[in-house]
Amino acid sequence: MYGAYYGKEAVKIQRGNDKVEANDAIVMIERVNMNLEQGMGFFDALSQGGVRRFRAVMLTSISTVGGLMPLILETSQHARQLIPMGISLAFGVAFATILTLVLIPCLLPTINDIRYAVTWFS
């Protein structure tokens, strides 16, 4: 991608992206759990949790990707080793944002249904 060589450093950055993605998801799920403790219905708690965390997740992602753009677009020979790491981090953060804001709210009702089914059969 972008004519950059991806070495060990870019793979290490991808491992770091896993931690960013997990942190965003945990914060969002924690907000949903706080809403449930306050007595909201499940789907209301889920939608309000998504609304409350949307701005924070988007601002973090946009500022990270925007901050990496000068590195990604750099043409000097000295930056050749850093460009693959910047590309890896920027696209990883963008992908993690999509997962956090779309996939997590879609999976939570399914996980909740499975939890109720397990307790019903027990």
Description:
Helices cover 82% and strands 0% of the residues. The chain has 122 residues and is mainly α. The protein is elongated, with a radius of gyration of 18 Å. The termini are far apart. The mean pLDDT is 85.
Key terms:
122 residues, 82% helix, 0% strand, mainly alpha
Alpha plus pi helix count: 3
Question: How far from one another are the termini?
Answer: 50 Å
What overall form do the CA principal axes indicate?
Answer: elongated
In terms of DSSP E residues, the strand content is under 5%
What is the residue-averaged pLDDT? 85
Structural class: mainly alpha
Low-confidence stretches at least 5 residues in length (pLDDT < 50)? none
Major β-sheet profile: none
The radius of gyration over CA amounts to: 18 Å
SS elements, strand count: 0
Helix fraction? over 70%
Write the H/E string, N to C: HHH
SSE blueprint and pairings:
Layout (H helix, E strand, L loop, with lengths): L7 H30 L4 H31 L10 H39 L1
Helix pairs in contact: 1-2, 1-3, 2-3
Short description:
The protein has 122 residues and is mainly alpha-helical. Helix content is 82%, strand content 0%.
